[in-house]
Design a protein that fits this description.
It is globular and about 30 Å long. It is an alpha+beta fold and 110 residues long. The longest helix is centred in the first third of the chain and has 14 residues. It is built from 4 helices and 4 strands.
């Protein structure tokens, strides 16, 4: 196989397996019961960002829970699994991690 052909094949493979990216927000609380309570508020029309500002124990709560853009493996496994498989713009959770219970809102994924 020529070097040029090998280079082209590698370029195609790299392009086709480009890492996914996601943008998400979350609300982190210590107790599952609190997460369930907040989930019910969200189902009844409460604003995700406002609940995050008021209730989240994560520093991101000050920004409405916004975590920005990240790729697979940048968050704990339980969080990653949801972010890279759940429907976009639907609140997921509670999701238990070593940090507590999360309500997760995936806002975009590429």
């Amino acid at each position: 196989m020529s070097v040029r052909l090998l280079f082209v094949l590698l370029a195609v493979l790299c392009f086709s397996c480009e890492a996914k990216k996601a943008t998400a927000s979350h609300i982190l609380v210590k107790a599952e019961a609190k997460a369930q309570e907040l989930l019910e508020e969200l189902k009844n029309g409460a604003d995700f960002a406002e609940l995050a500002k008021t209730h989240s124990t994560c520093p991101s709560g000050k920004k409405g829970g916004a975590l920005g853009e990240f790729g697979p493996g940048q968050m704990v496994a339980e969080f990653d699994k949801v972010v890279f498989s759940a429907p976009v713009n639907e609140v997921q959770g509670p999701v238990k991690t070593q940090f507590g219970y999360h309500l997760i809102l995936v806002t975009s994924r590429t």
